[in-house]
Amino acid sequence: MRLTTAQALVRFLSRQWSERDGVERRLIEGCLGIFGHGNVAGVGQALAEQGAGARSALPYYLARNEQAMVHTAVGYARAANRLSTFACTSSIGPGATNMVTGAALATINRIPVLLLPGDVFATRVSAPVLQELEDPRSYDVTVNDTLRPVSRFFDRINRPEQLPSALLAAMRVLTDPAETGAVTLALPQDVQAEAYDWPEALFRDRVWHVPRPVPEPAALARAVRAIESARRPLIVAGGGVKYSEACEELRHFAEKHGIPVGETQAGKGALPYDHPLAAGAVGHTGTAAANALAREADLVIGIGTRYTDFTTASRTLFGGARFLNINVAAFDAAKHAGETLVADVKEALFALDAAVGRTVGAPAWRADPEWSARAARLAGELREEIARAASGRELTQPVLLGVVNDALNDLPDGGVVVNAAGSMPGDLHRLWRPGDPDQYQVEYGYSCMGYEVAGGLGVKLARPDREVVVLVGDGSYLMMAQEIATAVQEGVKLVVVLVDNHGFASIGGLSESVGARRLGTAYRLRGDSGELDGGPLPVDLAVNAASLGADVLTARDPDGLRAALAKALAARTTTVVYVEPVPAEGPPAQAWWDVPVAEVSRLPETRAARERYEERKRDQRPYL
Ligand SMILES: Cc1ncc(C[n+]2csc(CCOP(=O)(O)OP(=O)(O)O)c2C)c(N)n1
Ligand SMILES: [Mg+2]
Prior knowledge:
By secondary structure, the protein is α/β, with parallel strands linked by helices. Helices cover 37% and strands 17% of the residues. The protein is built from 24 helices and 23 strands. A hairpin with a 2-residue loop joins strand 2 (16-20) and strand 3 (23-26). The strands form 5 sheets. It has a 6-stranded parallel beta sheet with strand order 5-4-6-7-9-8, sandwiched between helices. It has a 6-stranded parallel beta sheet with strand order 14-13-12-15-16-17, sandwiched between helices. The chain has a 6-stranded parallel beta sheet with strand order 19-18-20-21-23-22, with helices on both faces. The relative contact order is 0.10. Bound molecules: thiamine diphosphate (TPP) and magnesium ion. Thiamine diphosphate binds at residues 421-424, 447-450, 473-476, 501, 504-507.
């Protein structure tokens, strides 16, 4: 078939499917894009020619910012448990480099997205073209090379003939649970428009089987021995549990053996929050319950977790525990010198279920009954503590989150909550009571300000059956609120709760604790002193949201918020609920986080912070 490279690309993408457990779905649901001279005549023309409407094989969505469109693709793919995603087409130059942050976010969170940045002429006949970076050492370098370290697969299509093998490699990485992340095919603008004779076979429907690798028998035997020799095991459930759709298996395994479960941000909701073995959030933003268990456990069973510093409290949390790591990615399984079980989480739990406690002659294995009973007591106290934190007459942030949580848990569909950066993720991790595993969608791998609205749009595209509530701080809103306009354009309804505390509550607190005097963390006018300590900014974010096409409601107290949320959830159009919460001290952190403090300073508060830092630093153990 004689087609341009871009036409062949679009035709190919519209015929790719993923399959897991016998269920097939489109692998590339659609194409988000912003056009410029680097893609309008190539990918843009190809999309237009194939028919890019909502009912076409590869629908096109106009976004407002290239970083945001990658966030939208991530929100979609994550809510689809990584079985489907979006392509993102950009022009060359700034359009392409705007995607770097989104790509890093996708790769760090292990979420598949397909990026199609335009690139400068392969022939170089017109070089340097508008927006081309010239590297005096080599004409082979373009700004798109910044996407290499943040992509799990990167290729530049300098000849049409290179496209088929690059596409096959790209689809393989997108659908490989161990390798997935951002996949980038850089497309020189002349090659996009160049015609070539393609074999028809390239455009046949192709199904990509998403594997569930089973554990190796010897590794399974070692894992069983590790579990059976433990008395005080603790499961740390990460995002891998949810992506593998193994929450039921996790519950069954924990119950059968009396093992308490702590959850990371990505794993939150894996176990019902009111389960007697649910110790809640673990780590720096963890609960007293989970962290107490973590300090005393003799075996940590990490399931689908990357063990970030928030989970390990910068390697201060897990006492003398050994590690057993169940992960589809060998890279993660090998962390902390653990016993490794490289497998899909569901398959691993299935295999362990058949093997643990079945050693001939041995009684069915369970954790020390006192340990399980203690976990149940702590879980009970945790539920009371969470209920206390969320109650109150003043609209503090914990109360606000409690009101939103109740509103979602009252919905028949359970809703989804989306958040990423600021002071809310910590409060959400500790306090949120997920109605089900799909409800909690907090991006905390990259914790990227600006993910919230754009990511929420993607979540809603994946889950039109659910109400999607985006929680966004004023700082994050000011970085990237423009996708409200895209939601309005698409008739995709979001509820955005805009939490305006006039600056960076999170970094303000952190700044004070490290002796940095809260510099640059409150939004104030430049005052007479020359510092940013003047009056409040005359910035009205509620009016801003209305100007983007959203309906806007304002809430001043818990009852007002309940009423506004009820209205917003019942509405058909995107609605922003604007709230200025009452400032309140958050609960004290139950575990440390390593943020190095200045070793020398003239400021007394910095010296005091350094003393505290050095004391805590002594607890840090490498685990290996
Ligand atoms: C893109 C990006 N830049 C900087 C940071 C560092 N950072 C983390 S939270 C935060 C402030 C967030 O402010 P806001 O959204 O208002 O939330 P609040 O802390 O007030 O709850 C900053 C600057 C980040 N996470 N992401
Ligand atoms: Mg703020």
